[in-house]
Amino acid sequence: MERSGGWLDIVEEGARLQVSANGRWTIGHGRFLEEEICRLRDFKGRQVIINLGQVNQLDSTGAMLLHQAGHMLKGHGCEIGFHGISDRYVPLMAQVGDAGSPGRHLDVHSKHTGLGDLVSNVGRRSIEALREGRDLLNFLGLVTIVFWRAVRQPRRFRPKALITQIEQTGLDAMLIVGLLQFLIGVVLAYLMADQFRKFGAEVFTVNLIGLTILQEAGVLITAILLAGRSGSAFTAQIGTMRVNEEIDALQTLGMDPIEVLVLPRVLAMMITLPLLTFFADLCGLLGGALATVTALDISFPQYLRQLQEAVHVRDFLIGMVKAPVHAMIIALVGCYEGLKVERSAESVGRMTTLSVVESIVLVILATAVFAILMSVLGIR
């Protein structure tokens, strides 16, 4: 009979048992593989060597069944050893073995929720956050070194990759950034108009719209949008390349992944985010103008005159100065988490989610630091 799936060859050598796994151990042959493993139930107290050298294909289902066979034989008093496994399947076998080990199970009744556990959890998370910050700083230093090396040797720059990233992070994001910022301007105008109307000072609605959008809302909303849109894309793209071993191929060819993958994305983000911020400011002011003209007895020329008196170039620059910093944070976090992806699809999704969360938190933290510094220095 022709065997198209996977099977076991069992050879008894006295007290030893040689078990050779062959063929394709994948989910499509799961039922037949379970029947093959059942053939091992009658062996007890043996020294069992499971040879995986003849396994042509292996997925998580096959790895789980092999570990289940090992646990079953151990339950029968056998000594188990896996040999001959291909290097490309070693991480998969290790991950499945850790996930399916008998000691790992969820017992909600055994967990303590006392004050000591809460403090311990907070401390552990704080240490993890500090280590993550340290690693990000190290990554920033590495990218800076690669950048200055490229400055000294301009041929290392990749203009095609840079232009492609500018298109994806900038041009393709203009519609969503402009629409959202326009709506933010409308919301701010109606909200402030209702409050100022109580004091008969509706005209100051224009002042607050201009200051809020130019100094804070324009750059912050744009950065958050790009963190969710482009930052997550950076992590997913680089992470998928890592899963497919494309980054290993680049290193084999003598190419630096930081120079090829990270540097174009960081530079593109630092170019596009300030430009998108400028575009978002215009859209936000336009949305505020539309809402102000509609809700208040103010004409469009009056809106422009009041806006000119309320805001200055300094207010515009306060927002624009933040844009490159936010861009650096988003690009660095996105690329860093992508390079940390392990060789599994689950890791890509987990790191992509972590990238978005970290980027948004760090962007808001940087905004708060800017606000405090500018207040202390009297720049506002």
Structural topology:
Elements: E1 6-13, E2 16-25, H1 30-38, E3 47-58, H2 60-75, E4 79-83, H3 90-99, H4 115-152, H5 159-169, H6 174-197, H7 204-243, H8 246-252, H9 257-295, H10 300-310, H11 313-339, H12 345-377
Parallel strand pairs: 2-3, 3-4
Antiparallel strand pairs: 1-2
Helix pairs in contact: 1-2, 2-3, 4-9, 5-9, 6-7, 6-9, 7-9, 7-10, 7-11, 7-12, 9-11, 11-12
Notes on the structure:
It is a single chain. With 380 residues, the protein is an alpha/beta fold. The chain has 2 domains: 6-99, STAS domain (Transcription Regulator spoIIAA); 144-377, no CATH class. 70% of the residues lie in helices and 9% in strands. The protein contains 12 helices and 4 strands, in the order ββαβαβαααααααααα. It has helices spanning 30-38, 60-75, 90-99, 115-152, 159-169, 174-197, 204-243, 246-252, 257-295, 300-310, 313-339, 345-377; strands at residues 6-13, 16-25, 47-58, 79-83. A 4-stranded mixed β-sheet has the order 1-2-3-4, with helices on one face. Helix 7 packs antiparallel against helix 9. The radius of gyration is 30 Å and the shape is elongated. 30% of the residues are buried.
Provide a short characterization of the protein structure.
The protein has helices at 30-38, 60-75, 90-99, 115-152, 159-169, 174-197, 204-243, 246-252, 257-295, 300-310, 313-339, 345-377; strands spanning 6-13, 16-25, 47-58, 79-83.
